[in-house]
Design a protein that fits this description.
Blueprint (H helix, E strand, L loop, with lengths): L6 H7 L12 H5 L8 H30 L8 H12 L19
Helix pairs in contact: 3-4
Length: 107
């Protein structure tokens, strides 16, 4: 039996075609589309891709094994480890309560 690749995994591992992180010349920048990421966003993307390749992709087999086990309805310890590492690298989005605007629909 061959190794199956989930659609999510295939999409995550696919080469990214729409975004380049190389520095461009002034002439090329003058004709840019205006949708280039800021330097901060580009640096964050590099950090995120490194995190994915070093930590998330290698953990996929463990995550899939946990999902196929009788323990699938419990939190996978690997996920907790990945979250801790993501927090350490400032990659895990934390909800800031001060950013939530009170509306009639929020408690």
């Amino acid at each position: 039996m061959g190794t199956s690749v989930s659609p999510w995994s295939a999409a995550l591992h696919a080469p990214h075609s729409g975004l380049t992180l190389s520095r461009t010349s002034a002439a090329a920048a003058a004709v840019s589309s205006g949708f280039e990421p800021s330097e901060r966003a580009a640096a964050l993307l590099v950090t995120l891709r490194r995190f994915m390749s070093e930590h998330v992709y290698p953990a996929e087999a463990q995550l899939e094994a946990h999902a196929a086990s009788p323990q699938r309805w419990t939190v996978c310890p690997v996920v907790e480890d990945l979250k801790a590492e993501a927090y350490a690298r400032s990659l895990f989005a934390q909800l800031e309560p001060c950013l939530i605007q009170k509306t009639p629909y929020t408690p």
